[in-house]
Amino acid sequence: DAGVTQSPTHLIKTRGQQVTLRCSPISGHKSVSWYQQVLGQGPQFIFQYYEKEERGRGNFPDRFSARQFPNYSSELNVNALLLGDSALYLCASSFRWDTNTDTQYFGPGTRLTVL
Amino acid sequence: GDSVTQMEGPVTLSEEAFLTKNCTYTATEYPSLFWYVQYPGEGLQLLLKATKADDKGSNKGFEATYRKETTSFHLEKGSVQVSDSAVYFCALISGGATNKLIFGTGTLLAVQP
To answer: Which residues of B touch A99 (CB under 8 A)?
Structure first.
């Protein structure tokens, strides 16, 4: 079975530009979460979606937005890029969003570099 | 707020050495605990988990026991291999209606032949 997939693998942008990252969850999973991993740190929670509804939001500015589609895939958008947005962006999928026992499976990530 | 603490810096071990990685947590509600591993250039993989006190998670020779009294979830392996070289993250999901993961800063393990 296919795991969580993310595209693109790598991305280079300049300050002020906008970027869209994409994620496809494991088949049957309805919940998608996004995390930002800055080099040398643990991942930080950005958003969670379930059945196209936002179920959680981390402490990130409004430049960050996301959505989930009817097929449960998701996009993360970042506007007005800053140098500090350079990071590995990870997508995770799970069956549910409302329990702490459900395992989340991560994709390989998108490496964003902002110059 | 909830948090996970991993205090160790990078560790280098020889093959077949014993491994222990410390993890302590703070949580307002009864959490589930996880260890994730990140191999070079890859995303995160779940290594093991425990969802209630005294549970022992195990996988690939790694073990960790959920200790509520010491708020800890230390990772151990009796004999490491070169292929275990990676960054290890301890994480929790707090109780309640959420599956938001809160990660520690991670610790790098390098295993030399």
So the answer is: 97, 99
Closest CA to B35 of B98, B109, B96: B109
The secondary structure of B1-30, three-state, reads CCEEECCCCCEEEECCCCEEECCEEECCCC
Structure tokens at A109: 């990530």
- Nearest residue on chain A to B94, alpha-carbon basis: A100
- Gap between the Cα atoms of A62 and A83, Å rounded: 16
User: Which residues neighbour B6 within 8 Å (Cβ) at sequence distance 6 or greater?
Assistant: B21, B22, B23, B89, B90, B104, B105, B106, B107
pLDDT at A40: 86
Beta-bridge partner residues of A113: A12
Place of tokens 């995160």: B44
| Neighbour-count burial of A84, counting CB atoms closer than 10 A to its CB (0-12 exposed, 13-18 middle, 19+ buried) | exposed
Task: Give me the percent of chain A exceeding a pLDDT of 90.
Answer: 86
Amino acid letter for position A83: L
- Segment B44-77, tens digit of pLDDT: 999 999 999 999 999 999 999 999 999 999 999 9
Question: CA-CA distances (angstroms) from residue A19 to A6, A106, A113?
Answer: 14, 20, 11
Would the CB atoms of B43 and A31 count as touching at under 8 Å? no
Does residue A2 register a pLDDT over 90?
no
Instruction: Report the alpha-carbon distance of residue B97 to residue B16 in Å, rounded.
Output: 41
**Which tokens go with B44?**
């995160």
| Six token digits for residue A67 | 């959505």
